[in-house]
Each structure stands twice: as structure tokens, then as C-alpha cells.
Task: structure prediction
Amino acid sequence: MNLLSVREARERILSHFQPVTTEALPAVESLNRILAQDATALDDLPPFDNSSMDGFAIRAIDVADAKPASPRTLRVVADIPAGSPPTVSITSGEAARIMTGAPLPQGADAVIPVEDTNFQDRAAGAPPPPEVTIFKNVTQNENIRQRGADIRAGETALQKGRKLKPQDVALLASLGYSTVNVFRKPRVALFSSGDELLDASQPLEPGKIRDSNSHMLAGLIESAGAEVEKLGTAKDTYESVKAALDKTSALKVDLILSSAGVSVGAFDYVKSVIESNGKMDFWRVNMRPGKPLAFGEYNGAPFIGLPGNPVSAFVGFEVFIRAALGRLAGQTERNRLTIRARCEEEINSDGRESYLRANLREESGSLVARLTGHQGSGNILSLAQADALLIIPAGVKCVPAGQEVEAWLL
Ligand code: AMP
Ligand code: MG
Result:
């Protein structure tokens, strides 16, 4: 087996995945989905010139000389609440009371905030005064939100491949999208394997441990925007592993993911079952934690076998599977955001690309990282305690205290 770099292994995996099909969804239910179309503005936003303040719509020229010592008084000829189009036109010497968000009347070219007038009655339901005295000048267009200032009809508001955030859904709603095309959620079949595994709710028995990986991986899959089909735990027998894998064909999944059972141990049956109905490769990746990563195909669906040790499974997910699910999901590919942190202590590595569990804290404007304890691939406590994975590049055997390394936030 030749040694693959992390990057080569990731690219090989990614080359097997293409975006899933799309579906139309009500735009207001599209949160966290991946947009499968460019969303262009159907209307100008804002759709009409409107006031950004509660105040009086006026002609700026009428109050050009207004000062506290020499105010100007204008006749109030209309009252414009938000939500109804004004029916009047403002001419010289006139004003209209106007609320935030209300359309600007014809003739007006500025809004004077109520605070700069003698009208201070802001109680709900208070009628407008017959006239208003203004103590300040305003420039043309002041306190007016111009039609189309945010975006103009026909411009691209959101691009295909974007994961829709709450504020994106707000934008789609503002623009009048009733439905949008999004990628359907990728579906991932997940199983654990091992005779030692008990359900999380079961009491311990001699020689047994509770299955933690399937719960961790299910959460990670969902956090990557995919759906999980839980296939439970396979025993270390050919039949049991085959039964788990055979369930996947009816489920129409985009990926089959398993943990454990892919080492070269006497009880690791996953390889032979996969090969009975597909094919499988083991890649030796130059990383730590990490074992051979199993990649194959079963009944036409891609299969990835992660190591059994919980931390190895976690890191394997973050390094390989998250990117694969992102591609399946149709998400625009961007390198994962890395931050830089100073190592509090010296870190030694064996020269493989290493992912270490750490806590970060801020110290005089920069981040300092401290390892969370045992870095063995079975130590799930230090993983749970970590808020970052430090990345020690391949070829580096020692990072002296005080040196910066890259890290992923968890
Ligand atoms: P294996 O890859 O089957 O050799 O397993 C490697 C290690 O991971 C062993 O110590 C297993 O007990 C442990 N392990 C395997 N599967 C799980 C799981 N689902 N949850 C927690 N630990 C596991
Ligand atoms: Mg095992």
C-alpha cells in the first residue's frame, strides 16, 4: 500500500461524489438547505421610497434655514402610517406626519425626525398636530430609504450552492419567493460493528463497552445537512455484517458509513462482505489518528469504513466525510476555515499530519491552545472537552511552545 497524503485521500474520495437531485420547497421552510438555483431579486428592495424615522415628510428647501433660534413652521396636511400608500402630494410650506417604513408622499424629499420638532406626542393613537415647528435643517434624501437601495430587480441576491441561513430566508421572503429549488438532503446509512458493543442504555457486562460511535456519527452527519438511516450494530460475523449492508439497497442511500471492523483483525468481516457484492480498497493515509481508511462500493452505493476508535472515527469524519457530504449536498466548496493558535506547550508528533484535541483561550488578542489531555484514539473524554483540533502538518516532528499552528474550531 502506498502512503496517501490527507489531501490526496480527500480528493480521491470527493471524485466519487456528485450533487444529489433537487426539489422545490416553500422558501420559508428552506433554512439550512442548500440553494440549487441563483436567487435573483424579483422586485426592487425596498420596493418604494420610505421613511427610516418617525417624523414629518417635508421639502428640504422649506427648512433650509431652520435653527433652534429661528425655527420654521409647516402645515401638516396628511398622516401616513406604514402600510398604506399616501394620497396627498406635499407642496411648499406643507408637511405630512410619517411613520418608519411608510411610503414617502409625492413632493417630499426628506424626513425630519420627530425629535427635531415641537411635536413630542408619540403615544399610540395620538392624532397629528395641525402644524409642526421644525428646529433643524435636513439635506435632500435624509432619512429616506430609496427604492432599490438594497438590491434592484434582476440582480443576484443569493448564489446557488449556498447554505441558507435565517437571514437568507428573510431575504428570500422579502423578495417574494414562495418556493425555491434546493438540493434534497443526502441520505447516509450508518452502522457500527463489533461483538463488544452494547446499546447506550444497557448495563455494562464483562468485556463489553457501550456503542458511542453511532451516536456521534449520526450527529455529525446531521450537522452536515444529511439524513441518517440508522442500521444499528452488526456482530462480528459475515452474516450479520451482510444483513446490515443488505438493508441499504432498499433505502436508496447516497453513502454507506460504518465504524470499526475494517482493520485486519481476525473478526473484521466488512471487507469480505463488501467484496462479495462490490469492491473495496484500503488506503493508508499519512495522518494521526488514522488507520487504513476503507473506501468501496456496495450494491452501487459508495461505502466508507471509518476506524472503530471513537477519536479516529471523529477525525476521519471531519477530515473526509464532511467534505464528501458537502459535495453530495450541492454546497459550494470552500476550504474549511482555519484559525491560528499559539501552542502553550511543546507538541511532539511522529511526522504524520496530526489532529490534536485542544482548548483555546484568548490572551492579549491572540489565541492560545492547550491540549485537552490523553490524545489516544480511544480517549473520548478529551475529545468531548476539546473546542478545537490543532493541525500539525506532515513532516513536522516538534512544535515548540509559543509557535502558531492552524486549527479547526469544533
Ligand atoms: P476495530 O476497528 O473493530 O478494531 O475497533 C477499534 C476499537 O474501537 C476497539 O477498541 C473497539 O472496541 C472500539 N470501537 C469499535 N466500535 C465502537 C463503537 N461503535 N463505539 C465505541 N467504541 C468502538
Ligand atoms: Mg472490532
In short: The chain has a mean pLDDT of 95. The CA atoms of residues 289 and 358 lie 14 Å apart. The chain has four domains: 6-19+185-328, 27-42+152-183, 50-145, 339-409. Residues 192, 194, 196-197, 209, 211-214, 259-261, 263, 265, 307-310, 378 surround adenosine monophosphate (ligand 1) (CB under 6 Å).
